[in-house]
Design brief:
The complex is a heterodimer of chains A (245) and B (246). Chain A is elongated, with a radius of gyration of 21 Å. The longest helix of chain A is centred in the middle third of the chain and has 41 residues, at 73-113. Helix content of chain A is 87%, strand content 0%. Chain A contains 9 helices and no strands. The two termini of chain A are 34 Å apart. With 245 residues, chain A is mainly α. A 6-stranded mixed beta sheet of chain B has the order 6-7-8-3-9-10, with helices on both faces. Chain B is built from 9 helices and 10 strands. Chain B is of the alpha/beta class and 246 residues long. The chains are: A mainly alpha (245), B alpha/beta (246). Chains A and B meet through helix 5 of A and helix 2 and helix 3 of B. The complex binds adenosine-5'-triphosphate and magnesium ion. Adenosine-5'-triphosphate (ATP) binds at residues 11, 16, 34, 36-42, 85, 196 of chain B. The site of magnesium ion has 5 residues of chain B, from helix 1.
Chain lengths: 245, 246
């Protein structure tokens, strides 16, 4: 019952956001700031995540497939396909649920409990257009961009790990990666990131926008925002796989 | 003119108040008093439709604000300046930008005009020197004054103060009271002051609305209040006087 009313409130917030997304002049400035905060500021952590995911994938695959009958290029194929289809998107998004989601929920939650949102509204602002729309748009735009960063770093990390550990020579890795490269995998990754970006920013905006109960309440909303974001990302990942693969 | 008619509000099972009716004429200063938690802030938020009532209406210059669509509501809200209980300054921008904020979005003023208007507002509250300070560097009293400067920068018809003097030392509180009187007299603004500070009421109010027992239990002029024989009201005043005299 409670989750039903929550769902209703969440949909209502999204509906308001959609309706007020035409008021571009209200949120133009905020949108640029958010594009930087969601996108540019997340690049370091995404590079790190990508490199480690790729290199661990290579080392593990090399270990699991240790056999004279399996060509080394297979490892390149497995690693690159896993990264493009699944890992670059999902692992990055789980990290971003912590980074972006927590920041958004805390920002809006603090603004709510210190009456800054009421202040915006009483000046005559549309607070949803001012606060929620730019954050969700930034998520939708920047997550796919971060997917490119994560993929490139993942492939690079995988390649490097194979080389430095002496398990997979770069030539074999690249041959495998090229052999099993389907553009559709990349499209699929983009679609996922688009959806995950929407989920994380909208859920976190919702949790922050309706926060209550002082500093403790903001803490609760932030925790809920990251946990719910992760759950919905995993759920959406499953649904998208079932629909699109 | 603001007419409040038969207003009722509850949150779930909690009835905040019902049967609240009174009128605020242009140029008047009305104080809303009552104990902590009696719903003073909630009443303010009904006047500019940040909250919707369960029953009743609020008529502002002939328009029922709760019956309007959101776009018209927002236009009407621009006639109001609001000083929030915790000042509600935007903490991501500095003092100057806080005051400039409504000007940047709601007017087409040039940077020069904005600067002039912001400094004028800050001068009004005696804080020109704080213009470049971050809001986190301001004291509680300064925050209230910056909040006030922001509230008047668009030249509102109405201004609503939520506990303007609470948490301030008596001298700073008096300065704020003087500012409130100044706004009302020189800028000819209609004011609504929520407070539980009787001293402030005596300084600024023309009329008094007393919220008690989940309703508007008394409404009248300041003079009538002093002579009133309503027990609850007298108890409230006596308790405050006791506090003032120590
Ligand atoms: N958004 C809300 N949801 C649920 N209950 C609320 C909400 N806002 C206020 N209340 C409740 O309504 C009652 C009145 O609150 P309000 O903030 O108006 O009190 P107040 O008279 O301003 O008190 P104070 O002098 O301490 O500021 C309180 O019991 C409060 O818990
Ligand atoms: Mg209050």
């Amino acid at each position: 019952m409670r989750s039903l009313t929550e769902l209703g409130k969440y949909s209502n917030l999204l509906y308001q956001a959609l309706r007020s997304s035409t008021e571009f002049s209200t949120y133009r400035k905020n949108l640029f700031q958010e594009l930087v905060k969601v996108g540019y500021d997340s690049v370091p952590i995404i590079i790190l995540t990508g490199i480690f995911t790729g290199s661990v994938m290579t080392l593990q695959s090399a270990y699991q497939l240790e056999s004279a009958f399996i060509p080394l290029s297979t490892i390149g194929a497995i690693v690159s396909e896993s990264i493009l289809i699944e890992l670059a998107a999902v692992i990055s998004s789980l990290v971003l649920a912590g980074k972006v989601g927590a920041r958004v929920a805390t920002e809006l939650g603090t603004m709510r409990v210190t009456e800054q949102i009421d202040a915006l509204e009483s000046m005559g602002f549309n607070s949803v257009s001012f606060l929620v729309v730019p954050r969700v748009l930034a998520g939708i735009f920047m997550f796919p961009v971060l997917y490119i960063v994560a993929s490139v770093c993942g492939l690079g990390g995988g390649l490097a790990a194979g080389f430095f550990s002496g398990t997979v020579p770069p030539a074999d890795f690249l041959q495998g990666a090229r052999m099993y490269f389907y553009p559709w995998n990349v499209v699929f990754g983009f679609v996922k990131m688009f959806v995950f970006g929407f989920i994380i920013t909208s859920v976190s905006c919702y949790k922050g926008y309706y926060a209550s109960g002082g500093a403790e309440g903001v803490g609760k909303s932030t925790t809920n925002a990251t946990v719910l974001s992760c759950i919905f990302v995993l759920l959406a990942d499953f649904i998208l796989a079932a629909l699109l693969l | 003119m603001i007419e409040i008619k038969n207003l009722k509000k509850s949150f779930g099972d909690l009835l905040v108040w019902e049967d609240v009716s009174f009128q605020i004429d242009d140029g008047e200063t009305v104080a809303i008093i009552g104990r902590s938690g009696c719903g003073k802030s909630v009443l303010l938020k009904h006047i500019n439709a940040l909250l919707n009532p369960d029953e009743g209406e609020v008529i502002i210059d002939g328009n029922n604000i709760h019956a309007m669509d959101y776009v018209d509501q927002r236009r009407l809200r621009q006639k109001f300046g609001v000083l929030f209980q915790g000042s509600a300054l935007f903490d991501s921008i500095n003092t100057f930008e806080n005051v400039a904020f409504p000007l940047r979005y709601f007017t087409k003023q040039s940077e020069e005009e904005i600067r002039k208007n912001v400094m004028q507002s800050l001068e009004y509250v005696n804080l020109e020197e704080a213009a470049d300070k971050e809001t986190s560097e301001l004291s509680g009293g300064m925050r209230k004054r910056v909040g006030l400067a922001r509230a008047i920068v668009l030249r509102p018809h109405y201004i609503m103060y939520d506990e303007p003097t609470s948490g301030l030392d008596p001298q700073t509180a008096d300065e704020i009271n003087e500012l409130i009187n100044g706004m009302a007299n020189t800028l000819d603004i209609t004011s609504i002051v929520v407070t539980h500070d009787m001293h402030s009421v005596l300084e600024v109010a023309d009329k008094v609305a007393f919220l008690n027992n989940q309703t508007l239990s008394w409404f009248g002029t300041l003079e009538e209040m002093k002579r009133s024989d309503q027990q609850d009201l007298q108890d409230f005043i006596t308790a405050s006087e006791y506090q003032i005299k120590g």
